[in-house]
Amino acid sequence: MSVRPDADVDSEVRSGPSATSDLIALLGGTFDPIHIGHLRAATEVALALQAHVRLLPAKIPPHRPQPMASAEQRLQMLQIALAGSKELSVDDRELRREGPSYSVDTLTEFRREFGPQRPLALVVGADAFAAFNHWHRWQEIFGLAHVVVLDRPGAATAFDWAAELKSLVESRSCADVAELRRSGSGCVCQLTIPGLSVSATAVRAALAQRASVRWLVPDAVLEHIEQAGLYRGRAP
Ligand code: ATP
What's the 202 CA to ligand 1 centre distance in angstroms? Predict the structure, then answer.
């Protein structure tokens, strides 16, 4: 079941999500670099869940090619992009941990910090979720957090999911995002958001060819990329 945020997006972006919100949403990624697809998706999640969203850059993403920019550069771009945001922030705990950035380890840390009851939601793009059953100790993740699957333009749909993922989603499916506050973990919720077909791969490819990426990344991030000479002349 897909859930559409039906809130008044503009007015809620202005006021920001409730400061007393108890649900913590986590969006992991490589952010190589952060772009408007990430930012808009994270904002939609904040509105739909009425929760603060932490963006967690991975130091060593275990399930994909390694990033081109260093951990420090990716963190710096995130900090620039999120400066002044009420509803989004960056959490650098995976960058401070050695070894592959497994979500199960990150969520275990959050559990230690916030206790067993606090609702946690791991937000995963539908493209990444299609391979969720190959993630390190993936079944343990449902004992640590809820999982919110974000429909992304062009991403794999439920039709493409492996049988074990499909049946898991069916057995844990929640009909409404309100259910994410009724327990600390264990539900799977699909959230459809208006799509922006932007990827970091496309941004890197354009930068490598010295083509413009204006409006694909925030202006301040673009300025930083240009000043630091990131992604220039290198194949993505
Ligand atoms: P790359 O092109 O290098 O694979 P990416 O653009 O997919 O990168 P990631 O850092 O890998 O970016 O993504 C982090 C998370 O954000 C993932 O869950 C991904 O599905 C999601 N995401 C990335 N781009 C978008 C987008 N345009 N709309 C919605 N979600 C997105």
Answer: 11
